[in-house]
Amino acid sequence: MNIPKPSASGAAPAVSVIIVTKNRDVSLKTVSLPSLARQVFKDFEVIVWDASPGEESREVVGAFAAATPGVSVRYAKALRAGIASQRNDSVETARGEIVFFIDDDSEVSPDGLGSLIEMFSDDPALAGGCLPLDYRWPEESGETAPPGVLYSFLVKRYWRLFIGQEEGGRFIRSYGAGPSRFPKEEGPIDHLWGCDMAFRRRAIEGRRFEERLQRYTGTAIEEDDLFSHLLYREGFKMRIAKRGLVIHRAAPGNRFGSPFNDSRVHAYNSALFWRKGVFPFNRGSLFSFLWVRAGVFGFMLLRAAHRPWQRERWQIVSGYARGFAAFLIHDMFAHTALEAANLTRPLAADGPGYSNAAD
After folding, report:
1. pTM here?
2. Could you tell me the domains of the chain?
3. pLDDT of 141
């Protein structure tokens, strides 16, 4: 059945919490939904947009709805799988003035929704924002043998020369988009993370998450960065809230299936982010963009040459080259009309779903 539409006389909630998910019923059951049940602020609805082929997530949402009769809970089977597509389709059903996207593995502190409402109420001009974020990476199996003093020295110097910025050993954008950082302290911010991003609904009406970022997999990356950064580039205000917290308990495993595809996705998506989110506003970023791309590719070659017998490292090199080549062929010189068309593509109709909302 389709998601029932709330009656015209029913009061809209202040916040619509949207969770797009696929094959993550355990995270829904143990992380995101229980944290929403503990919210001090009660005027919100929950929308779960599920692309899973099975029924496990539906059952989890149904049990949550039965246990929280005071909260409007709506579930839908996504007609189009893909994180950007699911965000685009699900937001059309949101009724709240504030739309809060979280992941199925995002844990929202009990004061989280109240803090968002306070932040948006204090500044009517605010278009977007987030709670402070504690991003917890999954346990990853690292290399057991030390890389060697000389190799470490060369890698650090090379990284600083080409990449330029570093935070906790992880890559940071340095081609004119501003630093990519986890929002931890209250203040302005130039982009938001998909596991913790809220918008005033009227500020994002008619806007679309970039579905080309799903070129190689439904699990897009940087669709959240690009969507929110474009708001910032166009002069909209976004902030990190004073209090509250989202703990993102990132699930383990490679979302992209293989080292080759992982590298290809990162190459293509980061390049498309620059093309849409930076280049139109800063033409001078072309040199720094190409400098960083060359540096990252050279770094991958350096790692592969360090241990040439490890096939996985050469797959990463090949994937990066293929992804960047696809960007150059299909998107680097694409007419801006193509980008404008992406903002006006029609949405799919609601998929079959479950709801405990009033008819």
Report:
1. 0.83
2. 15-132+183-252 (3.90.550.10), 149-175+257-342 (no CATH)
3. 38
